[in-house]
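Example A, followed by Example B.
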Amino acid sequence: CGISVANFCLLFSGLMDGSVSQTPRHCISGTGKKITLECSQTMGYDNMYWYRQDPGKALQLLHYSYGVNTTEKAELSSGSTVSRLRKELFSLTLESTSLSQTSLYLCASSEYTVLHRHLQPA
């Protein structure tokens, strides 16, 4: 069964003793460029995720990691790679930017594994 965007927000909100942040916060680039987005977390969780959300569309899982040097591709990972050399960092690289990659990129971290089947708009 699917998980809606509203439920996704609830899963990753609430009282925490840590944070997840992305750098850079905003990025504008021409086509054909290599861009790396960094995701860092202070909770010490093993599980980290990279998503993209195109305008008016549902969240789409790109890559995920269950620990240092353990990364997996999702169906929509074409044109991007990830690296997880330290527990607190998960980097996403767009190898050669194209107009089709214009999107909102989001990272997340969780203590437990989150099953991803379909992320539907609310």
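Example B, a separate protein, is given below in the same form.
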Amino acid sequence: MKRTNIHMPNLSYIAAFIIGVIFFAVLWRMLFGSASSLVVLAGMIGAATAVTIFWLRNENRQHGKGKQ
């Protein structure tokens, strides 16, 4: 099995996900006074969706550059 290196942008997507969840929970607590489990879960789902979409878009662009 060939060893592959970690693609550095993948680490930035993970960091963006974590920062997004923390930011969402803090913002929600400041605006509404509570951060329930469901609210944090909704924030995690939203951040995960956004991060996944941007990651897939970036991967598609990378593959498009290699074929030219």
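On Example B: The chain is about 80% helix and 0% strand.
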